[in-house]
Amino acid sequence: MSLLQKLMEHPSLHDPCGTAAKRAHLKASLPPSVATKQVDGDLRLSEGEDLLVEEGRLHVKGHLLLDDQSRLLVAGDVVVEGNIVHEGIDYALLFAGGSIQADNLLFHGELVALEGLSLRGAAWTYFNDYSTYADTLTARAVVADDRADAVDRLHAEAHLHGHSRVIAAALEQLLHPEAWDRYQEGSYTALAKHLRQGQRLLRDSPPRRK
Fold first, then answer.
1. Which one of 24, 174, 209, 210 has the minimum C-beta count within 10 Å?
2. Could you report the per-residue pLDDT of 70-106, keeping only the tens digit for each?
3. Residue partners of 203: CB distance under 8 A and separation at least 6
4. What backbone torsions phi and psi does residue 8 show, to the nearest 5 degrees?
């Protein structure tokens, strides 16, 4: 049984990935990753679907979309040219033995990046059901809506942390007006659709792929 397969036996990756020392030990246990699996469009994991990429990196030319109860584990880097979106009320897992890179990230489930997360736009996680485990997180903006993420070093121009009612005023100034309108609809469903369509999330950000 491979290391990624063993990780899938855990109901949560808090125990094996909850500290920097544990993540370093796990990283040292992974074999070197040299190959790249490329997906030319969007990659969507349906509800309950598992995908393991043990041969190395994953390069998604479109968006990476995870439904509830889906799990994606990659031995190396996860490079996404579009957005990463998990919008739901249940568990989902994205694990990278390397780094995670994308335009924007909107995520409710559990995130693990053994070599850190890097977003060209926003890293937005929400609700305290699950957490993010990484040594570093770099983004233009970091939003943690009622969620405590286990990230050791954070680099961002804007960092909003707290309940949505507390950070609402700052969010309005941060988001593109159309994205703010979607967020104001009262759930993350509309905002997730906005990102899946490649629309702008932050003010002064260029339009992304559709």
1. 210
2. 999 999 999 999 999 998 888 999 999 999 999 999 9
3. 173, 174, 175, 176, 177
4. -70, -15
